[in-house]
C-alpha cells in the first residue's frame, strides 16, 4: 500500500485558464505539451459532458455537445468527455516547468494561472488498494476519477517506448 | 406627497440596477415572439390552446366570499390554466440578474406568482399565461443577457463555472449556442430538441454586462464599496438577532 511512483524531485503543475477551453484550443495545447520531453503524466479536469441527458423530462435523449469532441494528441484519438477547465501534470524538473509555461503563453489566448503544488496523489489510499489490489501500477495512482468505474476510464499512453 | 417605494439602498451602479429590476422600470433590449417563447418553454405546442385544470371561473359559480370579490383573478386563473414554471440561471460572471432580484421583480411587479429562490437559479410558478408574461418580460429586457443567463428547467449547472471561450455560460445540455454574433436556442428549457432555432439576440459585451449587472463582485463593484447597503444589511441582521432572541423567562 505504500508503493509510490513519484520521485520526490518531480514537479506537479496546474494550468488554470480563466475560461473553459474549446476542444480545438485544448488539442493545440496538449499537442504542444506532448512534444516536450520530461512530461511524466497529465490529466484533464473540468465539468463533465454527458452523452445523454441524465435527468429531467428529457432523460436519455442524446446531448451532442460541441465540447464533447474527439481530439487528436500525438497521433492518438482521445474522447474529451469534459469541458477542459484545468490541466494537472507531473513533470521531470523545473526546466520542464518553464517550458510548459512558455507553451501556455504561446497557445492560450486567455489569461491563465500557472501553479506549482501537489495536485496528483503519489501514494495509494486504502480505497485505491481495495479497487486495484496489491500489484497496481503506481503510475496510475490518482489518474482516474475515484467515483467512476475503472473500465470506463480512459488513460492514454502517448509514448509507450519511453515507459521501458 | 404620494409614497414612492425606494426598493433598495445604495449609490453604486449595482444598487441602481437592482432598483430598476425591482421596480420593473427596465430597458427593453430585444424582441421574442410568443411562438418562440412557447417553444423554448416546452410546456405546450406553439399556437395550441392553453390546457386547463378547471373550467373558467365565470362558469364555475364561486362561493360568496368578500376576498374573492375584492381580488381580481389573474387572466390565467380566470381561464383555469395549469400551473407551469419558468426557471432562469444567471452566471456569476456579471450575469444581468441574480436569483433574489428576479424573485423580487416577479413578486413586486406580477400577481399570482410563486417565485422560488435558490443559490444559482430562480424559478417562478404561475398559471401558464401569467408565467409566460413574466418569462417574456424578463427575457426581452435588460434582466437577461442570452449569453450570461439562460432558461434551464433541469440540469442547471453552470452559474458558478468559468465562462467558456466564446463567453456563453457553460451548459452541459448545450441548449444555447453562439452562431455568428447572436445566441440561438435549439433545445427547450429541459433539453428536448425543438423544431427551429430560436434567436435570442445578441449577447452583451463584457463592458455592457459589467454596467448592467446586479451582482456585487470585487473585480467590478464590490459589496463593501457601498456604505449605505452595508449600513442597511447590518441593521437588518441586527434587528433579526434582537427580535429573534426570546429568553424563556
UniProtKB/TrEMBL annotation, chain A:
This is Methyl-coenzyme M reductase operon protein D. InterPro entries: Me_CoM_Rdtase_D. One of its GO terms (biological process) is methanogenesis. Pfam families: MCR_D. NCBIfam families: met_CoM_red_D. Keywords: Methanogenesis. It comes from Methanolobus vulcani.
From TrEMBL, chain B:
Its cofactor is coenzyme F430. InterPro entries: Me_CoM_Rdtase_Fd-like_fold, Me_CoM_Rdtase_gsu, Me_CoM_Rdtase_gsu_sf. Pfam families: MCR_gamma. GO terms for molecular function: coenzyme-B sulfoethylthiotransferase activity. Its EC number is 2.8.4.1. Keywords: Methanogenesis, Transferase. GO terms for biological process: methanogenesis. Pathway: One-carbon metabolism; methyl-coenzyme M reduction; methane from methyl-coenzyme M: step 1/1. It catalyses: coenzyme B + methyl-coenzyme M = methane + coenzyme M-coenzyme B heterodisulfide. Belongs to the methyl-coenzyme M reductase gamma subunit family. MCR is a hexamer of two alpha, two beta, and two gamma chains, forming a dimer of heterotrimers. Hexamer of two alpha, two beta, and two gamma chains. This is Methyl-coenzyme M reductase subunit gamma.
